[in-house]
Amino acid sequence: MPKRISVALLGVMALLVSSCDTGPHAAAGFRLPPGGSPEQGKADFVAFGCDTCHEVSGLALPKPTVQPPVPVVLGGPVDSPMTDGYLVTSIIYPSYRLAGHPQSQIAVNGESRMPHDYAAKMTVQQLTDIVAFLQAQYVVRRTLPDYGYR
Questions:
Q1: Which listed residue, of 9, 24, 45, 131, carries a Cα 20 to 30 Å from 138's Cα?
Q2: Spans of all domains in the chain
Q3: Rounded to two decimals, what is the model's pTM?
Q4: Rounded-to-integer distance, Cα 100 and Cα 72, Å
């Protein structure tokens, strides 16, 4: 019996280790430089026309005008923080993850409807500010009850 448990434990450990991507495209450790301005990020979000496709939960921005509408509403409650890496990737390589939304509304021929040229149009500072703006719009849900312990 102990041998069976140790083999199962080794299998679980191997699975965990193999799922932690440490290659050149791993998100672990990716950080934007500090000092992103959410206020400037909001201005850049509008200047780049992001608001013509995306709503931002809880903000009074002009209503999106793109047709058909894009069902991706930014901001609001989430289960875990929106990381720098996730948001940067979503902006500069929007076709990377298309899951969770109706493909007919967000993709054409398997590619995101979102323009792919923002990497060439934005400065790092603009990208940093937009990410700071977006991160400020998300609220992480509490997954465990708050028992008042500090």
A1: 24
A2: 32-140
A3: 0.75
A4: 9
Helix (H, G, I), strand (E, B) or coil at 73: strand
> Which candidate, 66, 32, 29, 21, places its Cα nearest to that of 134?
32
Say what angle helices 38-47 and 124-137 make with each other, to 10 degrees: 110
What fold does the segment set 32-140 form as a domain? Cytochrome Bc1 Complex; Chain D, domain 2 (1.10.760)
Q: 84-92 and 124-137 helices cross at what angle (nearest 10)?
A: 120
119/108 Cα distance (integer angstroms): 20
Long-range contacts of 54-60 (CB under 8 A, 24+ apart): 56/134, 56/137, 57/137, 58/137, 59/137
